[in-house]
Amino acid sequence: MSTPKTHRVALLFNANKIFDREVITGIADYLSSTRSSWDLFLEEDFRLRLSGIERWQGDGIIADFDDPAVAAALADSRLPVVAVGGSYANEADYPVGLSYVATDNFKLIKLAYDHLIEAGLRHFALFSLPEAEGNRWAQEREKAFSALMRRERFDVEIFRGLATSAQSWDEAMEQQIQWLHSLPKPVGIVAVTDARARQLMQACIIAGIAVPEQVALIGIDNDPLARMLTRIPLSSVIQGAQEMGRTAAHLLDQRLHGVRLPGTCILVPPAGINVMASSKHEATKHPYVMRARHFIRQYACQGIKTDQVADYVGISRSSLEAYFRRELGYSVHDEILRLRLEAATSILAGGDCNLIDVAMKCGFTSSQYMHLVFKRELGCTPRAYQHRATQDRHAPPVPLEGIQL
């Protein structure tokens, strides 16, 4: 059997971005499942640097064309190039003559909108990014949101806010809070990224705006780091970025073997939604119950007790318990336990981890108690749940709304 030829391929991505990391993961998955042999060029710190790329002696390139500097640097490349980026409402905006793999921006927004409207919401808004060449993909999501709102006969409400910087952070928070107060409630808000959604979550918490009762929030990217940095678990649309990477690698592989693919454009739809607490909107409950649940969502994993929740709400424990029983049919402790269980299943679905650490992170008094709760409520041990959940890495954690604690 002959040894396949080894090709030298450059991957021009910024792996500090979850989208780029997922695309690279898809490329790696393609290579591991085929006989293709590539020597990959990436910077040692996985950052994108274009200096000297025009002199690089290789066989092909896969690159992030959402970055206009990358598109400009490769405009005259004689090597086979496969471009990866966002979709465009105007077909004339796609790169000319290149193989292009795009995330479908309209379907990303539509999936988030469908989720919010199924929760019973009738007011919607989009939290975007300032207009800039490097943010063209965000502006395309604005176009998709506007087109969808007009089609469904809703008002178009888009807020871009300030770019992130240490100097502008306080002003940015103030502007976001003002915008949040101006919106009709309850409202469903789609953020163009999870990072943007995380900022808006902080603004809601600072302003005392209940999530998701008053603001149901969903981001895009399913970024585990953004989720770890939010007090209330963040819902997110899962981009098909790994599938984009696999598709891009396949296209380049064909080019490297002499197949001509002039102007090929493939749109990849989202892979689904990871539904967490931030978008699980319910019909308005009693204000005491709403305030209590907002507090519990933030601090359930920090070992809070029912007395602390009642103190926050400003009523007696017995009164709060009565409101919970009447409005929800279960106790304050049940709600705390439900959120802890949801947090634990989310961590376990992410892969191998120490059960003692999971129990501590999620507010259980011990790993033995967490084991007992899993057996009672889910019918399996934490390890069995983890094994089942990790069979499909792309599957979101099992929803817990139906659990009767």
TrEMBL record:
It holds the Pfam family Peripla_BP_3. Keywords: DNA-binding, Transcription, Transcription regulation. InterPro entries: Homeodomain-like_sf, HTH_AraC, LacI/GalR-like_sensor, Peripla_BP_I, XylR_PBP1. The keyword DNA-binding applies. SMART domains: HTH_ARAC (SM00342). SUPFAM superfamilies: Homeodomain-like, Periplasmic binding protein-like I. One of its GO terms (molecular function) is transcription cis-regulatory region binding. Gene3D superfamilies: 3.40.50.2300, Homeodomain-like (1.10.10.60). The keyword Signal does not apply. Residues 290-388 form the HTH araC/xylS-type domain. CDD domains: PBP1_XylR. This is Helix-turn-helix domain-containing protein.
